[in-house]
Amino acid sequence: MRWLVILTIVATLTGASGAARHAHAQAATQPADPTARMTTRAATAPGAEKEASKDDRLSVTRQALTVNGRTLNYTATAGTLSQKDEAGKAKADIFFVAYTLDGDGDARGDRDARAPAPPATRPVTFVFNGGPGAASVWLHLGTAGPRRINIDAQGVPSAPPFQLIDNEATWLDATDLVFIDPVGTGYSRPAQGEKGEQFYGVKEDVQSVGAFIRLYTTRYGRWASPKFLAGESYGTTRAAGLSEHLLEKQGISLNGIVLISAVLNFQTIVASGGNELPFALYLPTYTATAWHHKRLAEDLQRDLGRTLREAEQFALNEYTAALMKGADLSPAERDAVAQRLSRYTGLSVDWLLRSGLRIEPGRFRKQLLADQGQIVGRFDSRIAGFTADPNDAGAEYDPSLSQFLPLYSATFNDYVRGVLNFETDLSYEVLTERVHPWNFGQGGFGYLFVADTLRDTMMKNPQLKLLVGAGQMDLATPYLASDYTISHLGLPPDLQRNVTRAYYPAGHMMYHDAASRRQLHDDVANFIRASIPAAATRERNDSRQEAR
Predict the structure, then answer these.
(1) 8 A C-beta contact, residue 126 and residue 178
(2) In Å, what is the CA distance from 258 to each residue of 139, 184, 248, 407, 505?
(3) 100-117 pLDDT, tens digit each
(4) What is the pLDDT of residues 417-460, one digit of tens each?
(5) Are strands 189-190 and 374-376 parallel, antiparallel or unpaired?
């Protein structure tokens, strides 16, 4: 079952040349002593804590980025916060990277503007990936942070050495950002003598990450700030659990949650015996994938949007009805469904009949380009790679993941030391097995389901907004499965208006596509603005004018 769990993408670490990185950092603290377990750092950034805990290791740097003629002066804080129980006993050291806007320089050239953005009006977004076992580096260096991996417009990385570049689509112009690595991922570790099992589970993870958010909010004076969560893949599962935990246990009410490549109901993505649901929900993603690889009939290749609407209607109606009938489906009905399936997937009628009209995602990935000896990616089905045995039904690897893990790992490792000035000899765990076995809390029965938790939170906090973003070529968390879950939340009509859905012609990490990355930025920025009360927005604008 573990492959079902590791849904995210995550990656880690490194950047361009060290010299270019050091030039990018404008004012940095001295590197932390890699041999010392505890190093005290006094934070100097506006809005930061006046005195760091003696058990924390923090590096604070001042930096700047120009986006569309506007200069963003910001403070980067990288390091670990010591998580303790009420008796003061250390439980874990949690690694994070935070970016907070210092001033609001603009096209007039106010590069030295350092007036702090008022915490009461400046939004803050807590960001994490999923896995379980994934660090936050994917969203960090892929789309939201001020620096990003250098890939081409279609999302294809170059050969090493890899580099980071300024991110023209950073979310920092709309919100402060705090990237969190849950215990066991990144540089986050249980404290000495503490067992990892107390962090490695659905509820355990929510409690730990929730405690970090409360601690950061307290230390950095963000209780009055508009607050958001942003999670990818299993990170959306975590976000749903956090929404209620923060409200009920920590007294933190969220303005909004960004769900990227969401999975709140695992029954929608696990194509296993006795569960017919995923076969229909994956179908439009098969169609989008076949369209990208030009495996559809000419009329379906003309307009992806129209083709997907047609495939969705078939999937939710005739195809679902055929799956429900099982052996009671007549031979004539079976042949008719096979013909339609072939039309929307590019697979042969004979193969579909032999497969019982049920297309398992791994087999689709192997079968679509079998005549070329290639396999399509799980996280991004636009990407194809070579396969050693085209006749083997199993998908032996994911070409859309294997190319990116070294890219993220190398760039982050260079960036965290060369620019953020945080030093450690620990291995940065991008996607780790150390958090397994993961406690799903299901008692061995059923599928993990957290959609009801999110629904209940929205009932209790009717101001909470959702932005649900999905890639149309994502074979890990297909977009129709996300639609199905959101449509079945059971929200009253008034609260249904709090949900915004967005779609991108790319994969699980839709931000690897340049146009989708820009669109995701705009969608997130507009969502954040719309989720903050108008009075707070006016106060923020007034504060900026006074600062200038």
Answers:
(1) yes
(2) 12, 24, 20, 25, 18
(3) 999 654 333 343 445 556
(4) 999 999 999 999 999 999 999 999 865 568 999 999 999 999 99
(5) unpaired
Residue 226's closest CA among 81, 323, 117?
A: 117
In order of 17, 84, 263, 401, 466, the CA distances from 259 in angstroms are: 33, 29, 9, 20, 7
Interacting residues of 159 by C-beta distance below 8 A, sequence separation 6+: none
Q: What is the DSSP string of 405-452?
A: HHHHHHHHHHHHHHTS-----S--BSB-STTPSPB--STTSS--B-HH
Least confidently predicted of 107-111, 306-310, 482-486 = 107-111
What distance in Å separates the CA atoms of residue 231 and residue 342, rounded to the nearest whole number? 35
Is 455 within 8 Å of 486 (Cβ atoms)?
A: no
Neighbours of 375 (CB within 10 A): 27
61-99 pLDDT per residue, tens: 999 999 888 899 999 999 999 999 999 999 999 999 999
| Amino acid letter, 456 | D
3-state helix vs strand vs coil in the chain, percent to 5:
40, 20, 45
The answer to whether 415 and 14 are in contact (CB under 8 A) is yes
CB contact at 8 A, 126 and 140: no
On the question of pLDDT at 378 being above 60, the answer is yes
Report yes or no: 178 and 96 within 8 Å, Cβ to Cβ: yes
Q: What is the DSSP string of 326-390?
A: GGGS-HHHHHHHHHHHHHHH---HHHHHHTTT---HHHHHHHTTGGGTEEE-SS-TT-EEE-S-T
Question: Which is more confidently placed, 147 or 393?
Answer: 147
Interval 487-527: pLDDT, tens: 999 999 999 999 999 999 999 999 999 999 999 999 999 99
Q: CA 472, CA 469: separation in Å to the nearest integer?
A: 10
- Token pair for residue 269? 């993505």
SS3 state of residue 197: helix
Residue 5 pLDDT > 90: no
The H or E element that residue 80 is part of is strand 70-84
* Cis ω for the linkage preceding 116 (within 30 of 0): no
- Which CB contacts under 8 angstroms, 24+ apart, belong to 286-290? 286/344, 286/345, 286/359, 286/364, 287/311, 287/344, 287/345, 288/381, 288/472, 288/473, 288/505, 289/364, 289/368, 289/376, 289/381, 289/382, 289/473, 289/475, 290/344, 290/345, 290/346, 290/368
